[in-house]
Amino acid sequence: MSTTPPSKPSKLPPFDPTDPIGVDDLLGPEDLAIRDTVRAWAADRVLPHIAQWYESGELPGIRELARELGSLGALGMSLEGYGCAGATAVQYGLACLELEAADSGIRSLVSVQGSLAMYAIHRFGSEEQKRQWLPGMAAGEIIGCFGLTEPDHGSDPAGMRTYARRDGDDWVLDGRKMWITNGSVAGVAVVWAQTDEGTAGAGIRGFVVPTATPGFSAPEIKHKWSLRASVTSELVLDGVRLPADAVLPGATGLRGPLSCLSHARYGIVWGAMGAARASFEAAVDYAKTREQFGKPIGGFQLTQAKLADMAVELHKGILLAHHLGRRMDAGTLRPEQVSFGKLNNVREAIEICRTSRTILGANGISLEYPVMRHATNLESVLTYEGTVEMHQLVLGKALTGLDAFR
């Protein structure tokens, strides 16, 4: 056996403040190209306008943005066939990070389209459903939404009241869904409903609902103080009649919607770090130029301590996202591991935003800087796709083998 130690580089690479632990070394040329393409699109199409959109509480031109995102291959990005890009999980994650570095609402548009609505059809739909909907959704010509949460049932979807009954060969849906991203601009909705085909949640089925169907409406939710540059709606289903082939044949019970949520949560693991990075970079830039007591505040120990701690948590979170992405690409990523990532990264991202705000002082609450916008957006991200408490209980059950949900 050879005892010759591995060769070492003759000179260490310089320290990169934007990548202090060298995470980019894990990326290949195609990964970097996708990341840089999405970053450039966001810088051109979102960042110049996002403060105005946020302040006005609207996302104008959402259909045009969706088509542009489709042209980038960002919609249903990690799905195969039907016009989808077939990218790796890591590449999809990098796109989510760059989109959320612009705004959580933009990443939510992409996540709901690809990881919820398109993923549900791709994984559980019939071949006819896939061919009918996925190409148009991948191109951004058709916007989709995902109806699971209800006014009285969020963390406990098994108790949903939306009901689908048989009427001859048809299905008739009645109920309401709440906090639905893309709802009022969607051309198709994936709606989950109770049926008589099982008990205790086992009879839950998914339905592909064209939003032009009589009885379907999606009034937009106003007066939000988070995710303001995002379309959020209620779904109202009042005797919505669908043909027998509207049901997703591959999904029965909660396994279907929960697997979609796990896929969407994975994108959040990355996206939250984008919001954190944007806030951290704003704090670093400000600390190097803002002067107090005769010198930049970045030269004071307390400010440097804040920056160091934020950098540690930011890049640990990005490294965790990479690790989970590699596991997803290998087919070994478990839902509990996604909960681990979502719980950690969103929680740490909010703390980074809050600490960044303290460095910016009063300027931190101004829309001239991205920090407060990201902080308020992340309050929603912390709640949707599973609250902190739900992910703590998922991990608690996995660690102890004891179910504390009920």
What is the strand and helix layout of this fold?
Blueprint: H1 29-45, H2 50-56, H3 62-72, H4 89-102, H5 104-124, H6 127-138, E1 144-147, E2 163-167, E3 170-181, E4 188-193, E5 205-210, E6 216-217, E7 232-242, H7 255-289, E8 291-292, E9 295-296, H8 301-330, H9 335-360, H10 371-383, H11 388-400
Parallel strand pairs: 1-4
Antiparallel strand pairs: 2-3, 3-7, 4-5, 6-7, 8-9
Helix pairs in contact: 1-4, 4-5, 4-7, 5-6, 5-7, 7-8, 7-9, 7-10, 8-9, 9-10, 9-11
Pfam families: Acyl-CoA_dh_1, Acyl-CoA_dh_M, Acyl-CoA_dh_N
Keywords: FAD, Flavoprotein, Oxidoreductase, Transit peptide
Family: Belongs to the acyl-CoA dehydrogenase family.
Overall description:
With 406 residues, the protein is α+β, with helices and mostly antiparallel strands. The protein has 3 domains: 116 residues, Orthogonal Bundle (Butyryl-Coa Dehydrogenase, subunit A, domain 1); 110 residues, Butyryl-CoA Dehydrogenase, subunit A, domain 2; 145 residues, Butyryl-CoA Dehydrogenase, subunit A, domain 3 (Up-down Bundle), CATH 1.20.140. A 4-stranded antiparallel beta sheet has the order 2-3-7-6, with helices on one face. Strands 1-4-5 form a 3-stranded mixed beta sheet, covered by helices on one side. The longest helix is centred in the last third of the chain and has 35 residues. The N and C termini lie far apart (57 Å).
